[in-house]
Amino acid sequence: xxxxxxxxxxxxxxxxYISDGRDRISYVNDPCAPSLHGxxxxxxxxxxxxxxxxxxxxPIYSYRSGQENIYGYNNAAFSDISGADSRNPSVRSPxxxxxxxxxxxxxxxxxxxxSRICSKYWYIFVxxxxxxxxxxxxxxxxxxxxxxxxxxxxxxxxxxxxQLIHLNSTHCECQYIDKCETEPEICHPFACITNNExxxxxxxxxxxxxxxxxxxxxxxxxxxxxxxxxxCSENQICNNTDGSYFCSCKPGYESISTSNGTECRDIDExxxxxxxxxxxxxxxxxSFSCKCLPGFxxxxxxxxxxxDFDECSSSNxxxxxxxxxxxxxxxxxxxxxxxxxxxxxxxxxxINECEELSAACDTNSRCEDRNGSFACCMKTITNECIECxxxxxxxxxxxMLSFASLKLPVTTKLPRMMTxxxxxxxxxxxxxxxxxxxKNQSKHVGNHVRRTRMIDGQPVAAGHFPWVAALLIRHEYYxxxxxxxxxxxxxxxxxxxxxAHCLDETxxxxxxxxxxxxxxxxxxxxxxxGVHNLSLNSTEFLNSQSYSIANFTSHKDYEPLDSEHAxxxxxxALIKLTKRIxxxxxxxxxxxxxxVNVYDQDILKVVSYxxxxxxxxxxxxxxxxxxxxxxxxxxxxxxxxxxxxxxCAISVNDSSFLGLGDSGAGATLLTTNHRWQLAGVMSKxxxxxxxxxxxxxxxxIDWLQSLVER
Length: 710
Description:
Keywords: Disulfide bond, EGF-like domain, Glycoprotein, Membrane, Repeat, Secreted, Signal, Transmembrane, Transmembrane helix. The chain is α+β, with helices and mostly antiparallel strands. The protein has 6 domains: 1-120, no CATH class; 162-222, no CATH class; 236-266, no CATH class; 269-309, Laminin, CATH 2.10.25; 312-350, Ribbon (Laminin); 416-436 and 451-705, Thrombin, subunit H, CATH 2.40.10.
């Protein structure tokens, strides 16, 4: 075929195009050959495609010559009936003899083309041939295998004790198998016996049987003899074992041998005298019980124990005047209340402590007897009984005191000259120590910050608030000088109240590095009371009386303040002094509250010692109690949570605040009768120093009053 466009080409089905061998024909868009659509062609491909696909007109085809390969497609026929050179225009006709046309083109040249095509793609024909041969071989092999096995199949169903035996390719039979011989252990541990029905059977020994449900002779199961009624004697229990059983005594019984055999007899547990505590033992068949003695009730958690019954809590057994019920172990007593005792007629009568106790009160107090108690009243010109919390800030009130003009003597037994020399020596030593501390101030900044005391407090006149006390470290334990630790409040002639963490030895050792320690922790402290100027070189401090701790009691539920984020809880302690304090204008005690007396927005006064120009002077600071929903969240945030026995307070003046060195200081409240009461004890400061947590003293008043001595 010649290159170009061939018009007037009729399309015929079932015909083939015969090339002269020089052209590569690719027929891709014939609508009658959809399987060839989309054939990809390289740059040497010959494209033969209709320019129009409308069957009402003759399609026009085009191609590119120059290729040797020949492609023939069914349903895409071109036939040359003219016999002319195929490169010339030719006409296709359905009447053409295809075989004759093919002969025309069978020339040596065409044969050469065909041979080159075959030689180029010979490996494809080889692979196809091998695939066909392998498939045939596998099919033949499977057929032979199936035929042989089908011939060997035998359609016999043998019993479980029989085996199918093939006699030849077409015959088979069932033969009996003696499993007792082929599998000797099949019934272990029982004997195997031959059985024509099942092939074998297991011979069960005593205590075993074949399963009663299906009577399987090839199995032996244990017989549970304990299911047999009354198989054991009275007071015995049956214990099943593998192939047998045994009888044992019930709990509370013991096995004994009698003429009739072994019997179970009751054990008398009451022979052991320690069976029941606070009760007596009652023996029962196979057991025992405890009966409680009068005054005791059974312990629901320990049935062999009887606990004391508190008669005082259940009924009013003591009806006498001034009588109280005192519970005892298993009983109770009606005793006279404190301050009363029984007379000859058995009545509880008041004790006049002022007559019977020569030292009921200090020398500057007047003893006033009361029912069941007594009061130590300040000696006033009007004989008014003022027990505590006297308002010394009221100038007119001070004139009422009969001892107001008394001066405390210098508390030393040295002659006057030696006393002056001693004071001068102490002053000289303290001044030298003070100058040394100034030179090395940077080395002690951490300790100073840790114990920061009241900032920007208001001055306190000398003689006011004489119950304020200071807890110092004795000079022999801290660099040869006393050191301020905490504040406290004097509440009687013997007792002071402070924060429990001030007396927490573990907490104390973390805060202070002492040069040496005494044998008892309480001996570290030097207590000064009513001193206005606590500066170490002041005459007032040097002349003040030093007190020691006899003992102290922290609240039993006190939780240590291990860190700034610790919860304030039960942070209160009571100190007892080694000697009694005589009441004076410089040493007087504060009142304890009688009820819950701290309410929201109450103004409280905190008196402590502040650092002012290197002087430690008594100062005061007003704080406001906060106990309302609006301020509760802020208090919790500032103080990292506080317990139920504490309240939150904030400084009235934004520029003033308390420091950690003010721990133990009393927050006092002035009552309507002009008496100062101890409302709170300073426990910790908040994130912003204006906030403080105070232990509410009124919530611990019963515990404190039980320990306070007159």
